[in-house]
Amino acid sequence: MRPPGAWPRPFSPFDGTAGPAALDHRGMRRLGLFVVLTLAWLSALHLVFRQDRAALVEPLLARTLAFWAAPGAERARLRSTNPEWDLMSRTFSVLAFANLALERPARRDELLRAIDAVLEDTLRADAAQEDAFVLPYFHRASFRDRAARSLFLDGELALMLAARQSVAPDTRWAAPLRERADRIAAQLERGPVLSGESYPDEAWTFCNTVALAALALSDRVDGRDHAALRRRWLEVAKRRLVEPRTGLLISSFTWDGAPLDGPEGSTLWLAAHMLQLVDEDFAREQYRRAREALGCTALGFAWAREWPARLRGHDDVDSGPTIPLVDANAGSSGLAVLGAAAFGDRAYLDGLLASLAFAGFPRQRDGSLRFAAGNQLGDAVILYSLVQGPLWARAQPRLAAEARR
Amino acid sequence: MSRAALGLVALAGVLHLAGGRDAVSVLSGTMPGSGAMALLGLAYAGSWIAAVVLAPPLLAAGALGAVGAGRNR
C-alpha cells in the first residue's frame, strides 16, 4: 500500500496541500469555498470600479488639452490606424471644449483658444490635401453626386465651426461655416434619399446625422432656417433607412438608398445624440431600441455590442475588434457612454463607466487621465459624453418652436 | 490557493513592468507599435483581469482554508 502523500500530485491551481485526488473531501470543501467567494467577489467588484463622473472631467480635459498642445507620435499612430479617427478626435475635442466653455465662464478664453487652434490646423490640413482624413478607398471611384465632396469632411468641419460660433461668434469663422452649411444643404437636397455620400456611392448615417446637427447649430448662429430640410430627411429616413426587424437606422447605404450595413452600435449611439437636434422623440426612440438590442449589463458592469444578436455583421476598421464570449465592442461601448449620458440613462452610464475603469486600463499621470485600451479619440468621446448638454440646449428652444409650428 | 493568487499577481506585475499596460490599445484596434507589442498587450489584459477577478477569492479561500486546517489539528 502506498503511504499517504506518495502519489504524484496532479496539477491544480488551488492546490498546495491536496493529496492523491484533488477532489477528495477536503479539496471539494476548498473548491466550494473558492466558488462561493468568487461569486461574492464578482457581485461586489463593480463597487471597486464605480466612478465619480464629475471627478473624471478635469483629468480628461487636462489630457485632451495636452494632446492638442503637442499631438506628436500619438496622432501619427492614430492616423496610421485610421485617418478618420484623427478628424473625429478633433470634432469630439472641440465639442467638449465648447460645452465646457459655456459651462465654465472662467475658462472660456482658454478653451476658445484651444478650439481655434484645432480649427486652424484642421482647415489647413483639409485645404492642403482633400484625402487628409479619409481612408484610401476614397479614390476607388467617382462620387455618384458629381458636385459633392465627402459629407464626412464637411459635416464634421461644420459641426466644429458651429460649436465654436455657438460659444462666441467670431467673424473669421463665419464664412467657412456658411460655406460648409451651404454645401451640406445642397448635397442633401441632391440625394435621392436626402443623404450625401462620404465615400463613392457610400452614405453613412453617422455622417448624415452629424451634418444635420451641424445645420441645426449653424442655423442658430446665423439665423437661417434649414428646419424643413431636416424634417424631410427624417421622413425619408423613417421610410427608407430603418431596418424593419429592429426599427433601428441602418449604418450605411448607397447614394440612392440601398442598404449596405445594417444597424451598428458605432453609428447608432452617436446618431441618436445628433438626432436630438432634429427630432427629440425619434432620437429617444432610437436610443431606446439601441439600448434594447445592443446594451448588455451584468454584475453592475455594462458594455455594448456592435450588432444586434440576430443581425450580426463583421468587424471593420470603424467598429474595431469585438471581444468574444461577452460580445463587447470597444467602439460601440465608448459611444454608448455618449448615448447613455445624452439620454439620461444613469444606471447604464454608471455600468459603462465601471467597465471603463475595469477594462479600459486607465493611466493617470500629472493630473491627466487616459484610457490605455483606447486612444485619443476614445478619451475625447468620454470627455465629451461627460460634459455634453449646454451646447445642445442652446439649439433646443428653437427646435422646440419648430416642432410646435 | 494563496500561491496561485500570488502567481497571478506576479505575472500581471511582470507584464506591467514590461510595458504591457501601454500596449492594451490593441483591444480597440489601435496598433501599439508592433505585433509583439500587440501580443504583450493582450497577455497583459488577460493576466490583469485574471488577477483582479481570481486573486482576491483565491487568497481569501486559502486563508480561510488554513484557518480551518489549524482548528482541525
Describe this structure in words.
The complex is a heterodimer of chains A (405) and B (73). Chain A has 405 residues and is mainly alpha-helical. Chain A contains 15 helices and eleven strands. In chain A, a hairpin with a 5-residue loop joins strand 4 and strand 5 (259-261). In chain A, helix 6 (151-167) packs antiparallel against helix 7 (171-190). Mean pLDDT of chain A is 90; it is low at 1-18. Chain B is mainly α and 73 residues long. In chain B, helix 1 runs antiparallel to helix 2. Chain B is rod-shaped. The chains are: A mainly alpha (405), B mainly alpha (73).
How much beta of chain A, percentage-wise? 5-15%
Question: Which sequence of strands runs across the widest sheet of chain A?
Answer: 1-4-5
Low-confidence stretches of chain A: 1-18
What's the overall average pLDDT of chain A, rounded? 90
List keywords for this structure.
heterodimer; A: 11 strands; B: 73 residues; mainly alpha; 74% helix; rod-shaped
